[in-house]
Amino acid sequence: MTASPSSAPVEAATADTSSAGDAVAVSGAYVRGGRTARLRSRVRGHGELLTGSGVLVIGAAVQGFGGLAFSIIVSKLDVKADFGDASALFTSVLFVTYLAGLGLPVALARYAADRDVDSHVVFAWGVLATVPAAIVASAGYLWLVDPGAADVLWDWHPVGGFALFALIVMGSAFSLIVDVRAMTMRRWNLVLLRICLVAVAKIALLPLFRHSDHRSLLIFLYLAGPVAVSGFLGIGLINRITGGRHQLRPRPATARAATRYSAINYLSTLAYQAPYFALPVIVLKHVDSTTNGSFYVAWGIVAIAFYVPSAIGQALLAEGGKGGAHVRSQMRLALALAVGLMALGALATFLGKGLVVAVFDESYRDAAHILPAMMLAGIPWAVTSLLLTEVRVLHRHVATVVITVTLMLAIIVPALILVPGNQAGHGLDGASAAWVVGNLIAAAVAVVVTGISRRHSSGHEAEDELDPLAPTE
After folding, report:
1. Strand pairing class (29-32; 23-26)
2. In Å, how far from its chain's centre is CA 290?
3. Which helix (H) or strand (E) covers residue 398, if one does?
4. For position 473, what pLDDT does the model report?
5. 230 by DSSP, 3-state: which?
6. CA dist., res. 56 & res. 64, Å (int)
7. Nearest-10 Cα torsion for 118, 120, 125, 131
8. Between helices 47-77 and 289-320, what is the axis angle to 10°?
9. Is the dihedral of CA 56, 57, 62, 68 positive or negative?
């Protein structure tokens, strides 16, 4: 969104050395206070970005505490093996939802960002495309990966189990694009409200049917169901805030550009998010349900924390794509915020890792062991996430592909080698090592690639790249 009150550059004005401070000009008006004034003017200019980032960070905190509370209650109410199977299924839903995304969360932030007819048409096509994508991705995953936890579905009902899984994936995918649509409307409060309601619903459902023969399936439903339901409801209600309706005609002028952008970013998003969703799947395929329960506790904390840079990047994407946006200055602000928060999170985890065993029990010591190192990887993750958002906003597709492919390979290849086996350094330790080292490598490559990209792009070229109808590389 608007980075400063005017597209004119901020000019420094000469001031008497006896004055209270230097004067700076913002859109022709002089503001006293030197560096402090410049900082204040920048913060005011980036108000929407800060608001969006702040709301999403609060949302991440709500998700984190809600997920932690859910895990604690389950550890007291249920057997660890049931929780392990349920968390493995939930991990599978997250993975398949990411496969079914089709690059739409990124594309809709760029091409369905307004209340006009074109934005409603692009969004409606996104909704329509999500339906077969969710079904095909669910079938492909359950057939090819065939996780052991899927027996929980088949034991309940062979056909109904698949239908339930696919519906949850579909609703979860809907929740992602509904959030993006609300973000572009700057209705951050609705995004936060959905997150809060989902967190409360998960915990409220837990005491139900505690002695059911299908308790693993029920825990899975309590974990994943509220998210899916919020997605279906969101699709039905979103036009109340956009002021339009779902329609497939007329063909938008940006249709071709949006399709191309979605396809490119689908591939880059697959690569970028592959470690985030694939690492838990690699773990659940090579450890037993009890060990997976420990990993899920640690990963649940890590995943929510790592959502913070992604959320700030999503806010940057939603605001950076609007006319007149000052992407570079927005980027600096977002990067400072993300890195600072992740550094604080890493420090808190190192100091408080013993709480995991204290809150759960001794059987979760593995979670406490791997948690600090995995959280430390959040600092390079923040760098990679925000630099990736910058090159996406500016349509620098080569840089996008290089960064995302590097991130994917740097984490997944070591994980495939280190997670299998019972030797020292394998299993959960191997997963932790792959996560840390891979993120460090990816951040280093992202810094280099983005630097090269910036040197080859003038300010005028950057403005052209923000035009959705302008030719791209």
Report:
1. antiparallel
2. 27
3. helix 397-418
4. 37
5. helix
6. 12
7. 170
8. 170
9. positive
pTM value is 0.66
DSSP H or E stretch at residue 179: helix 158-184
Q: At residue 423, does pLDDT exceed 70?
A: yes
Distance from C-alpha of 142 to C-alpha of 104, rounded to nearest angstrom: 23
Domain boundaries along the sequence of the chain: 11-43, 46-465
DSSP strand pairing (23-26 vs 11-13): antiparallel
Q: What are phi and psi of 323, to 5 degrees?
A: -55, 135
**CA distance linking residue 470 with residue 31, whole number of Å:** 37
220, containing H or E segment: helix 215-237
Partners of 23 in the beta sheet? 13, 32
- Continuous H helices in 238-376: 239-242, 255-286, 289-320, 327-352, 354-359, 365-376
Q: Which residue has the higher pLDDT, 329 or 122?
A: 122
- For residues 317 and 110, the answer to whether their CB atoms sit within 8 Å is yes
Hunting for tokens 């949850």 — which residue is that? 168
Report yes or no: 409 and 442 within 8 Å, Cβ to Cβ: no
Q: Please enumerate in sequence order all residues whose Cβ is within 8 A of that of 245, keeping only pairs 6 or more positions apart, or say none.
A: 120, 239
Instruction: Identify the residue whose tokens are 């739409």.
Output: 104
Please give the helix or strand (H or E) that residue 226 lies within, else none: helix 215-237
Per DSSP, the three-state class of 11 is strand
H/E stretch holding 450: helix 428-455
Nearest to 70 by CA among 227, 200, 165: 200
Tokens of 117: 């007819």
Q: What is the pLDDT of residue 34?
A: 52
**Residue 343: CB partners within 8 Å, gap ≥ 6?**
379
Instruction: Give me 287's structure tokens.
Output: 């450890």
